[in-house]
Model the fold of this input.
Amino acid sequence: MPTFSAPDGTLLAYHESGPRSGAPLLCLPGGPMQDSAYLGDLGGLGGRRIVRLDLRGTGASAAPADPGSYRCDRLVGDVEALRVHLGLDAVDLLGHSAGANLAALYVTRHAERVRRLVLVTPGTAAAGIATAPEERLAAARLRAGEPWFAEAYAALEEVTAGRGTGESFGKVAPFFHGTWDDAARERDAATARQRNDEAAAVHGGEGAYDPAATRAVFAEFGRPVLVVAGEGDANTPPPTAAAYAELFPAARLDVLKGGGHFPWHDDAEWFTARVTEFLDA
Done:
């Protein structure tokens, strides 16, 4: 497994799949601070070269000497170090969920190094976009016919009202997946094992984000941007994703009907076709 050194000397790992030739797609995982293994090959993406970064303290990457370096803005240097290590003048960059916040901050510092930007069911803290509780509930109600719906929806009402507990947060998991089957349950259970909770607690801490500055850079970022959303994703419902896309001069929004927070699992053919067409345009 290939490794490289972060600016502070932390040894970081990355994973490559697909053909070794061609422009790579550099992928940043969510969680926050989850092992990038959950991304897999993102449904195949048409045989494209994929490079997944294990963020510091996750996967095969070493933990840093300074836990404060888990903060999202401080991870930007790690992404830039990987670009330099790969010998690339510019990258196609993909961020999933909380990884979209890191991708956003990378754009604010290194816009000239980003050729195309893909934001998949993005976290929006870096851009300062808040999701209204009713938007989450409306996305969830699309699943009203499911046998587990009543209990999960009651838990989501508690969460969106600010009364969420560890138990209620666990019960809303079905609303993150287009199909709540055995495979989705297994992936959800793996999340707890793959995430660095210490790092996650620091990731979005005070000082991590400057939404006004981020939005100002986005307004001038003329490169192509693709925002991908799932119709039934209670984490990043389509109105939130649409508001994110509107921050850019040249962004498009694609919404997977019936999709959740992990659209490459819900419909790999749809997902890979949209992303591949965007990257190849």
Q: What stands out?
A: The chain has a mean pLDDT of 96. Residues 3-134+197-280 form a domain with the Rossmann fold fold (CATH 3.40.50.1820). The chain is about 35% helix and 15% strand.
